[in-house]
Design brief:
mainly beta; 1 helix; 8 strands
């Protein structure tokens, strides 16, 4: 149950990345695309990548997104979503969970790529029990296609 909401927040953060981009601004030859979205809401079905549990997530969050595209064909991305969630599991015997979360995603790319995503959340189940969770995903890929990745649910 503690990890039930992970999939919802990961999906929500991905949605934040493609919503509401501001016009690009040139800085030192780079193109910077950024946006801040306040009090965004999202309701979506999801599957928890740690447990396979399914349900519906309601999110209210603020997001910050900055993408820098450099003229040497490299890029960097920093995205963060901070907010509140309510998760209702499809399993009627499971507890509804409410709480708050912070989700960050960083990406550096060019010939070699690296991505790190961290989701941290705390909340309370409908039976009053407290919980906290952290989900970490990391990926490295070299220009020759060698890939190293891991994910951890804590």
């Amino acid at each position: 149950m503690r990890r039930f909401f992970v999939g919802a927040v990961v999906i929500a953060l991905a949605g934040v990345v493609v919503v509401g981009l501001m016009p690009a601004v040139a800085r030192g030859g780079a193109t910077v695309i950024s946006t801040v979205t306040r009090n965004e809401t999202a309701t979506m079905p999801f599957t928890n990548p740690c447990t396979g549990e399914t349900g519906t997530a309601d999110l209210v969050f603020t997001s910050i997104f900055v993408l820098t595209l450099r003229p040497n064909d490299t890029l960097s991305l920093a995205a963060q979503a901070i907010g509140y969630f309510t998760l209702v599991p499809d399993d009627p015997t499971a507890q509804t969970i409410t709480g708050h979360f912070v989700a960050t995603d960083t990406l550096g790319g060019g010939v070699n790529d690296v991505e790190t995503s961290v989701l941290t959340a705390q909340g309370t189940a409908s039976d009053g029990s407290k919980f906290s969770v952290q989900f970490i995903f990391h990926l490295n890929e070299t220009g020759t296609g060698v890939t190293f990745s891991f994910q951890k649910c804590a």
